[in-house]
Model the fold of this input.
Amino acid sequence: MDEDAGTGGSSSRAEKKALQRAKILQRESEQGIFKLVARILKKAEAERSEEEAAALLRHRDTVEELCRRQVRRNVLKRKQEEVFDDAEELKNKVSQLAEAVKHAQHLVVYTGAGISTAASIPDYRGPNGVWTQLQKGRAVSASDLSKAEPTLTHMCIRMLHKEKLVQHVVSQNCDGLHLRSGLPRHALSELHGNMFIEVCTSCSPAREYVRSFDVTERTSLHRHGTGRSCTHCGGELRDTIVHFGERGTLEQPLNWKGAAEAAKMADVILCLGSSLKVLKKYACLWCMNRPVSKRPKLYIINLQWTPKDDLATLKIHGKCDDVMRLLMEELNMQIPDYDKAEDPIFSLATPLRPEEESSHTREVIAPPAGQEDHSPDTQGQTEATAVQGGWFGRGYSKGRKKKQKKKNAA
Done:
């Protein structure tokens, strides 16, 4: 019996090895066919030999698959291209947008990285965006985010809210520029966090510390501790960033409740500089369960394709600052200048304790000359003037791995 069992075991292993080898050979054969067909298809039809034409007929399935792949690549390339409306068309579209803004009962603005590019903060999916570069296997250029200041678009949004034309702003940005523009906290939902805010989740409710520097230096995907501690309970402070692949649960600054309530009441939604590839997954922000006639009217300002274009009442292809400048002209409203002396970061920020002054090497946002500075002196810590937020581009590789797993499973 033992001898038979041993023989049976050897036979089973041999069969498995033979099967694995057959699979490897089949895969190599298929790869060879794909390379052959791909090489032939690159040639003009008139330049193909009789043998090559016969090979295409013999491998019709492979030809069809390669053609499908090429179509998908072309569609993706078109979606990534930036399109600009000409001056006359842009003016006409902005006039339509102005009418919508004036007559809206509850206007909600959704913002993405495209509104901060004028502040020299790269976007994500533009031609030179963070994820576009990572997808091509390139390194992401460093950016000193502490030197960024609110853009014309940020200041326009603040004024529109002040004049009660905008009720709420839902932002995917972590750069804190909406807050620094003077937009009130109650009117803002920062769905992916704020690089200037750290919190103590041991306190109930969570205790918030606004800082005048980027708190994400030591943090990354699934690692949110900043290295500082709560002055109230001694608990570890953490950043507020929600990376790709994470789910945000903090009440503030994410303010999901405010975002959901605003979306529920919205009759007009204005999307500024967002690819909407993330936001489209949040059904509660679009009220998609409503009948079509009762859904909010959607206006999109973006140079590239978005997955909501077909649902939009109007799509404007233009840079956010250019469109918002024209919009404010149409509305006959002044655009306020950003005044660093009035930046809320200085009144909101909690100074570090003396023992925490060396807990970061990030540049501190300094008030204008003559204004009192409560921030620690970090002059000797900021020799490197090009630094990145710990949130910048994080989670990209995880998303790629998920997609690759799904692709392999299929």
About this structure: The first helix runs from residue 2 to 41.
